[in-house]
C-alpha cells in the first residue's frame, strides 16, 4: 500500500503516518518525490484497513498495491480450479458445459419438457428457479418447495444435474437437498450471510456478478465462500447496469479474460440475462465462448410466449438446438469442446 | 402499457397480441400508425407481466405507462407519510432530523462519547453498526449482539433513539429489540427475504438505495415492505456507482425531488457514504437539505483516525457541530427546521 | 409517439395536448386508461420535437415509438450496406477484414515496418494516427501533415489502404487526400460540424461510438453523415465508460447484434481501445467476430515498449500473426471469412 | 508514479523497468514488498507517458501519484481564479451570479422578452444558443449568424452580458464578436481543436463537463485552454450519463467540492440540462448553491410550451423570479450573495 501525502504536507504529518503504520504492525518506507512525499507500507498482507490512514491529516490518497482478496487469487493458487457438479460436468478445464432451462419452474409438464429438450440438444445441466427474486412483490415469486420437487423429478427423468437459486439461509438448505450446484443471484452477490451459509454447506456454488459489481467486488464475494472452506465456486458474468437501454444489461465479456488473469476460479456467462432479448442470446453466447468462458447459462422454455417470467429472453427449443451446433464450432476453433451430457438414460 | 409492433408486422401477429392481452384479462386497443402499429392495454393495474408480451412474434417493444408499484405511489396516497421513530423525531413533515454517529460500534467508551457529542450538537438520533456488511471477509465485521447492547446503553445515557442495520432475518429480530428504526443497507436493497421480514416486524425501516438501483427499483423494494403491512418506511439516497473515482460513490441528489414527485414516503440523504470523503460531507449535506431532503444520516466518530471502519468519511465532533449550524441556516432559507432532540436528559 | 398524462389530468389539459399536436400537423388519438389517459400521435415521421409536448401542463411523460433516425434504419433500407474502402476490402458482406497498425505514426521506419508486419499476417488495411486526440495537452499529439505523408509512403510500399483519423474540418480535407477511409474518433462522435464535413467529402467514414453514447446516439450521428449524401459509413464499437476500472473501457459487444437489427450499416469492433490491455485484445477480438462483427480494428506496433502512445494495448507483430490464425477459425465457424489482402505487391 | 510489478516478476524485468525510467530522464527507486516489488519514479513532473511502462514485461499496473494537469491545479496556484465576464459579473469570488435565458434564440421578440424577464428577476447574464448541437440532424439547429445579431440586440436592450455556445473554429470567431463568454458544450469538451481556438481567442470560456467525463478529464480539457495562455475559464457541471432514466442526466453536485479541492478555477452548475425536467430545476439549483457552486446557468423561456428546443426543462419567467428569491436565501445561509446585475439601464 502507498500513502500519498498532499503537496506541502508537513514533516510532522508524515511522521504521524509512519507512526500509525508501525502501530498497525507493518514497516513504513518514506519516499520523497519532486512534488509530494509518498509512504510505502511493507509487509502488507492485503488486510490493512486503508480508511484509518486516509483519515490522517496531510494524506491525499491511499493507493492499494496488494489485492484485498487471497484465496481466490491466482497468486495464491496458480492452477485452474476445476469445479465438477456431476460426473462429466466440469467447469474450468478443457470442456465448456452448457446449463440450460427455463427461468422459473412452472409445472411438471413444463420442466420435464424443457429438460428433455435441452438434454437432447446437448446441454450438460438443467437450470430452473423455484425461488425467484423479482423486482416487484406482485410478480410470480416461484413455486418454492414444490418447484424443488419438480426439479428433482426432472433430474430423475433426464439424468441432468440441477442448478437452482437460493435466496436466503433457510432456502439454501432446502435447495442443497435437491441441487447439484446452488446459484446465488446478482441481487444477493453481497448478501454476506447467505454467502457464508453456502460456504458452510459445501456444495458447488454458481455466484453471479452483481449489477454494479466490479470484478474485484465479485472476487471478494467469492472469497467469503472460500473463507468458509468451500473452494467449489463458479463465477458468472450476467451483465451490468449501463446507461444504454438498448439491452436489459450490458454483458461485460472482458470480465472473462480479467477473471482468468486474476483468479483460478472458472467463469461462465449468462447471455440470456445479459441481454434480455432472444435475438441477442445466440451472438453473445458464441462471443462468450470465443472470449474463453468456461461454460454458459442459457434460458430455454418450451413455450416462451406462455412463460411466467423472462419469456422475452428465452429461446425456443429449436433455436437452442441450432445454437448448440454453432457453439460446438466456435469451441473447436479455440481448442475447447462443448461436452454432450453422458448420463441421459433415466437414473 | 403499450405494445409496439415491428414495422411490417403482419395482421396475424397483431391479432395474436390482442388475443393474449384479452386472455390476461385486459382489453386491447390497436392503434395503427404511419410507420407501425401499437396496441394499448386498457385496464392495466401495473401488474401485467410484460415479458410474456415481449416474447410474441412481431413485437418490437413493450412500453410501461403505468408504474409497477402501488402503495408507495403518491397516486395511491397524495399526502406525505410522516414516519416518527421516537417522540419528536419525525421524517416527512416540516422538520429535517439529523441521524449521526459512528460507522461501527467499537466500544462502550466510543459509542457513548459519540452519542453525547452528536446529541450536544443537535442530532435527533444515533446511528452505529453492530452488524457490518464489508466487501472483504477479512475486514472488521462488527461486534454483533454486544454492539446492540452498547447501543442500548448509549440510548439510556443520552435519550437518543437508535438507527442500526440488520443483515439477515435472525439479525433483524435482534436489531428490532433495541433499535427504533431498522436500517437495510444498500447491498441488501433487493434481499427480498429480508424486506419481507422487516415488513412483518412492523418497526420503522430506513431503506438505503442500492448502488445501481434506479428510483423505480428503490420504490419497488419499499413496496415489498408496505405489501407486508408496514408503511413506516424512510428511503435513503446514499450514492450510486459511477465511472468517476473522484468520490467513492456519486450522490444523486435529484433522487430527492424525484421521490417526492412519485411517492409519499420521506427520503433522507447520507452524504458520508455518498462521497466517502470527509471534506465533501459538509457541502453535500447542505446541498441535500437545500434539495428538499427530509433528514440526513451523517457519520461522526470521536477519533476518526482510530476508527475501525470508514474513518476517512467520518467527521470530527467539532466539525459536526459547525456543520449543524450551517444546516440550520439552509433549512431556514427554504422554510424548514433542523430539530433539536428534546429528550437529552438521561432516561 | 405517446403522450402520457398525469393521473388526474383535467380534460382541459388533455384538450390542450391534442390542440398542440394538431397544430404541429399530426393527428391525435386520445386513449383513456384505468389510471391515466394517453394521447397517441399518428402520422409522426420521427421528427416531432417531444420537448414542446413534455412542457405542457398535465403531461407526465412523452414516449417515443418511432425512431428519430431515418436513412440509417433498416426499415429505410432492408439490405446490408457494403462499404468498400479499396478493391477487395469490403465491410458488411461475407468477409470480415482486419484493419491493423500502430496507434500513432512515429517515423518512416516504424510505420513501414508495422505495415509490412500486419500485411504479412493477413491484415486488409493499415491504421495509424497522424492527428491524435490526447486527454492531456502535454502528451504526444501526432506528426500531423508529416504523418500523412508517411502513411502514403507505407501504402505505396505495401499496397494496404489507409484508415486514419481527422479531428477538425481542416484536418479532414488533409486526411481525405491520403486516406481510403476517414476515422472519426469517439471524442468527436457528436462534433456535428465535423460529421457534416466528412459527409460532404464523400469518402468512406469509420465512425467510432462515443464513450457514453447509446446505440441510438451513434445511429443519429451516422445519420448526420448520410443526411449529407454519404452512405459509406462503417460504425465502430470501441468500449464505453463504466464503473469498473479493471479495463480501460467496457467493450459492449451486444452493440453488434443491436446495430445489425436496427441498421443496414456495417459495424466493426476495436478490442485494443475497448480493453486497453494487450492480454485482453485476443479474447475480445475473437469474441467480437463470434458476435457477428463485420471487421476488426487492432493496434499492432513493431516495438510496443517504445511506443509514443498506447503501448500497453498494442500487440507485438508475432502476437498479431497468431491471433489472425485464431480469427480465421472463429470466422469459419460462423460461416464468414477473414480475407487476405490481395494487393501485397508494391504499387 | 509507481510501477507495480507482478507477483513473481524476475529481477531482469525489474531492471528493465529501471532502465527505461532512467532513459526517460527520471530516477527509479525500487521498493521490494512482501508480495511484490514496486518501482517509484522520482522527479516525475506529471508528463511521464505511463503507456510505455505499462507495456513492459512483468509490470502489473502503473499508478499515478502526480496529477497529469498543471496550470489548472490548486497546487500550481493556491488562490481562486476570479473570472469576470462583464463589470460586476464575476465567478469565483463571494458572489454567485446567475446566467439565465432560453435554450435557443428563436426570434427578436422571444430573446428580448426573455432577457428582460431574467434581468428583472435578478440574473447577471443572458444565455441563448445561436448554434445548437442537436442529436438529430432533423432538429432545429439554431439561427446561426442571425441568432448572434439578436443576442447583440438583447444585450443593447438590457445591458446583460452574453454567454453563448460555439461549435467549431469558424463559429468561435463569430461568437467572440458578440459574446462576453464563449460556451463550449458537453459534446465538444474533448474537441481539442476547438479548445485550442478558444484558448487563443482569449475571451472568458464556460467549459461544460462531457457526459462521461471524469473530473480529471474536465480539468485536462481546461488545461488545453490555459496552455494557450487563456486563464479565464469557468467550469460547468451539467449532469452525466447514468443508468437511471428518471432524469435526463445525473447532476453530480459532488463535482463542486471536488473541483474546489483540486483546482483554482470557478465552477457553476446547470440544473436545467442536469435534470431535463422543470420541476427538478428549483431544488437542484438551490442544492448546487448550497454545495458551493460559484454561479448557476438556468433555462428560462417566455413561453416554454412554444419553445423550439428544451421546452420541458425551461422555467416560466414567474417560476424563475420565485426561484431567485429562494436562491438569495440559500446563498446568504452560507455567507455568499446572488448579485443583482447593476447595468440594467439601456446601454
User: What spatial order of strands do you see in the largest sheet of chain A?
Assistant: 13-12-11-10-9-8-7-14
Q: CATH homologous superfamily of the largest domain in chain A - what is it?
A: Aldolase class I
Mean pLDDT figure of chain A? 91
How much helix, percentage-wise, in residues of chain A?
Answer: 25-40%
Oligomer: homotetramer
Commentary on this structure:
The structure is a homotetramer of 347-residue chains. Chain A has 11 helices and 14 strands. Chain A has 2 domains: 2-63, Alpha-Beta Plaits (2-Layer Sandwich); 83-333, TIM Barrel (Alpha-Beta Barrel), CATH 3.20.20.70. With 347 residues, the first copy, chain A, is of the alpha/beta class. In chain A, α8 (255-262) links the parallel β12 (233-237) and β13 (267-269). In chain A, α3 runs parallel beside α11 (317-333), α6 crosses α7 and α10 runs parallel beside α11 (317-333).
Give the SSE layout.
The structure is a homotetramer of 347-residue chains.
Chain A: E1 2-5, H1 11-23, E2 27-32, E3 37-42, H2 50-54, E4 59-63, E5 83-86, E6 89-91, E7 98-101, H3 108-121, E8 125-127, H4 145-158, E9 162-165, H5 169-178, E10 181-184, H6 192-201, E11 205-208, H7 215-226, E12 233-237, H8 255-262, E13 267-269, H9 271-275, H10 278-290, E14 296-299, H11 317-333
Parallel strand pairs in A: 7-8, 7-14, 8-9, 9-10, 10-11, 11-12, 12-13
Antiparallel strand pairs in A: 1-3, 1-4, 2-3, 5-6
Helix pairs in contact in A: 3-4, 3-11, 5-6, 6-7, 10-11
